[in-house]
């Protein structure tokens, strides 16, 4: 009798501990989305290594592998990562970061990931130029005495990709605004749609209207690469996400809070990302003065990009570990005491 009773109690406890199927599915979806970033970076590195070994070369940057047989991997990884960022939609709103006696208010990690996702595809579809001295990697060639260029034979396919991106961006933003029209507007709610609109207009202008310098645009004597501006904005937004994860004590987007050790690592990763971004920006600045090989014989841009991607993968590996068994609960019914308590808890945490 006792064994039977104990068995029933154990079965009841197990049933209570088990989550409904839809919650388990949500947990697994988020778990593997985070893990997919690690796999994506690994795939990009593998593609670059294969192209380098097969071709017997090491390019000056990972971006330059667009002009090698690794192009499909390069483009596919960046677009897939951007879609995964959009799918990891958290609470949004604002993130309040303590700075001594003051508080710095930033967009939430969810908003910043959406912001970064705008620029991921741009890194993929708007290439850097190709040097005339390295012709033979593709069927494209520079014309006349140009030392580097976007080959004119490649321009139509880049325009096709850019126009597809612009129209897709418009559709996504319009659909999301319609879907969220009845939701209470949160702080920084317009950051992503406004950024998307400005990006679409500017990209159309520089690609189809004032496109004499494409894939650059010129301001006076200065030339700026659309590709590298998109790269900077992507990694700057992402580094901010990592910093917020490390500095914020009560993170309403984390049902499984980070340990002190994990927070310390997030801070270290954010600082390393910021240093890497400054390193790459510094290389871009000196290049404006004609110094394109700051460290002779060393692919400094490729090194900086590889470090940034590695830090990106390490962060997502840590996030996956931290939130592997994240607690996911069903939402209480509107108007109930539980719903009011949840709303109060979220407001306090933010």
UniProtKB/TrEMBL annotation:
Signal peptide: none annotated. Keywords: Membrane, Transmembrane, Transmembrane helix. The chain crosses the membrane at residues 37-58, 70-90, 111-128, 162-179, 191-214, 226-244, 264-289, 301-318. This is Uncharacterized protein.
